[in-house]
Records
---
Amino acid sequence: MDLSNKAMEINPSITLEITAKAKELKESGVDVVSFGAGEPDFNTPENIIEAAIKAMKDGKTKYTPTSGILDLRKSICNKFKKDNELNYDTDQIVVSTGAKQSLANTFLAILNEGDEVIIPTPYWVSYPELVKLAGGVPVFINTNKENDYKYS
């Protein structure tokens, strides 16, 4: 099957490569701490497993609103207010599957072919690929410890 030209321009995930190598080494008996996929080396805590089972038994297995469950968005607003002294309304909060998915959705929604996207370094390895997939052009801005990793 042929892939799109955009898909063919995307570099393979170094995260998956590192994760696969760590798994290979572990299986061969090497004691490895993997800094690849970002998964913990322990199982989900039992109270979370039980809460998930209860939620499924209670019928909470359907699609949620696109922006996230209202009670969760309210809790996020309360957290920001309590811990960070920031005030947000629930309509300003979007719950997603993760930052990369949110960035991909944003880039696909706003970028036109050739638009430049500033990416501060260091960055997560997939960010430039997400920009390229959406037709954008990654532009890297060096940040470092000397300037507290801020734009200069």
---
Amino acid sequence: MNPTLGQERQLAAKPVAKKKRVMVVGGGTAGMECACTLSERGHEVTLYEKAGALGGRIKLAAMIKSGGCEEVMHIFNHLTAMIEKSDVEVRLKTEVDEQLIRQEAPDAVVVAASSPYRIPDIPGIHRKNVFTIPMMSKLAQVPLKMFGPDKLASMSEKFFPVGKRIVIWGAGAEGAQCAEFMRKRGKDIVLVAEDGDVGGLIPLKYKERIEPWFNRAGVRVVRDATVAEFGKQGALLRFSQGGEELVPCDSMMVMLPEQRDPAFFDMAASLVDEVYEIGSTLGGENAFLKHAFADGRRVGCLL
């Protein structure tokens, strides 16, 4: 993925006139791309990641997409190799807070951390058989490290720790891809779309294939509905035009998009003159790999 395509002149990594000390917060795709660009231009860059490894959720995405038309591990391999070759200082298992920013006193901060996913506070949302994206990411960390995305995807065809009948709440890119992944593993799926759209920001050439595949595979899509409650009998759907339906199921997966949380940006901006947000820090409308690369390169060339 080349973020400079068609903008080679505007996004050229030109040497800086004034070297700056830059904190890049978040070691996912956007953070790594930005850190590499900043370092290439001559800035002094430190990349902070609160987890024990770089990559963010890219390995989880690679597992979900494994065997399909969107292999993404080469992106992880490329970016981590570029980080290793660069002068970027990487600090893993380090959570950036106000105290650390004051201590480091950088000239600029780039916020490349993920936004929180929307998890509505409804009755039953904390039941053990309700799975969220952050929860699944955490559960997959160790197996992904041990086996890698492709092997784990293959293993999940024989065992996946969710019930047979699943309601997936959220039909954007996250929910649609999750529905396909789970159906291929023999699960009975009901996909709940809060509006009329299925697939969200998935590129059109792929998006137009989703519903025909769902129809062939027996995935039920329910539009213009939310989940009002999740109980022992299943998910209670509430329709925007009135009415309710209880959908019997064993598990529910909450696949609603990220929402920008301005708290960290506001705190950093009160301490540092230059603060930028990139990638999914800006919310679900900016959560794709293409956004991460484009933002990382743009801000890397801007500073």
---
Amino acid sequence: MSLSNRMNLAGKVALIAGGAGGIGAAIANGFIEAGAKVVLGDNVESLGDIASQMSRNSSADWVSMDVTKSGSVDEAVAHVVNGHGKLDILVAAAGVTYEEPTLDHTDENWRRVMAVNLDGAFYCMRAAGRQMAKSGGGSIIAISSICSRVRVRPELHVGYDATKAAVALLCRNIAVEWADHNIRVNAVAPGYCDTTLLGAVGRARPDVLKQWLEDIPQHRLIAPREIADAVSFLASDAASGITGQELVVDGGYSVA
């Protein structure tokens, strides 16, 4: 089988938790281009509109889900299976961030980032894994961060960093546990990515953007499509021997 065939996702059904976000939407578009049927999962009112705009020639399904509630996640996975017959790929991309010095860190911000970034990833991976174990396997990709590996600057968000490190460890542990079920579990760690949110930071605080660009060896922000390409690769048969890994897409930031 050729590489292009192994990279093809035709006939695959994918659920993207956090599919309304910049990186989530880019991943969805990449999957659609590769031939997959995509279901966007998120808790925003415009999710149906986002799904309908995903591709000119293809349509994406959608399901309302709150990743902080395990019941909502279980219902979303059931919706995918009931509507499309199976679940081959899960992307756990839902996440929030913030900035707050540790000495002033509130309990509320700690619980919020833990609930979305860590609890949400676990609930999504567990629900998808249960289905994949019954159906013969699949591929799970969680979105971690360079913050799982290195101390970034100048921003301060210790809770966010802790959640992303935990997500990477979840992937390593679960990959070993589920290997016998033919379920591959990997993470993709984005660096500073050119999303709407990061763009707003750059406009409001050009000194921070300057710091980031100086610290990135490629001296540019990563495009959401570059994250999506890495996720599509890990979801495909071209990555059939890869599990328990964290693929870093950061322009060299974490090794500089």
